[in-house]
Design a protein that fits this description.
It is a single chain. By secondary structure, the chain is mostly beta strands. It folds into 2 domains: about 80 residues, SH3 type barrels (Roll); about 35 residues, no CATH class. It contains no helices and 10 strands. The chain has a 6-stranded antiparallel β-sheet with strand order 6-3-2-1-7-8, with no helix packed on it.
């Protein structure tokens, strides 16, 4: 039995805003915006640029890091804690999918477009 990957509405390079967690006044990331670097559908998590930064101890001689020490890197955050930013209002929004039938070369093709619920604009 093959396992299916869960569906994710957030894609790589989307601009997202953190909508839950600790506030910025308490040292958290709530309200911050950043670009999605990577999406992990298996664990329902996304990696966002500049969000959820953690300190990581790296041993000297590991590939990708010439010297050891303490590094600050982004950690994945759950997809339910972020929302896509509406390009028109610059505020978080939900997403709906508009399905259209397009006819090309005598064939009917189904096209799915992500649409912002807040402004109705395509994403």
């Amino acid at each position: 039995m093959a396992t299916r990957k869960p569906k994710m509405k957030i894609k790589k390079n989307d601009l997202v805003q953190v909508i839950s967690g600790r506030s910025q006044a308490n040292g958290g990331d709530k309200g911050k915006q950043g670009k999605v670097i990577a999406v992990y559908p298996e664990t329902q998590r996304v990696l966002v640029e500049g969000i959820n930064r953690v300190t990581k101890h790296v041993r000297a001689g590991q590939p990708g890091s010439s010297s050891g020490g303490i590094e600050v890197v982004e950690a994945p955050i759950h997809v339910s804690n972020v929302a896509i930013v509406d390009p028109e209002t610059n505020k978080p929004t939900r997403i709906k999918t508009r399905v259209e039938s397009v006819e090309r070369d005598g064939r009917t093709k189904t096209v799915r477009t992500r649409v912002s619920v807040r402004s109705g604009k395509d994403l």
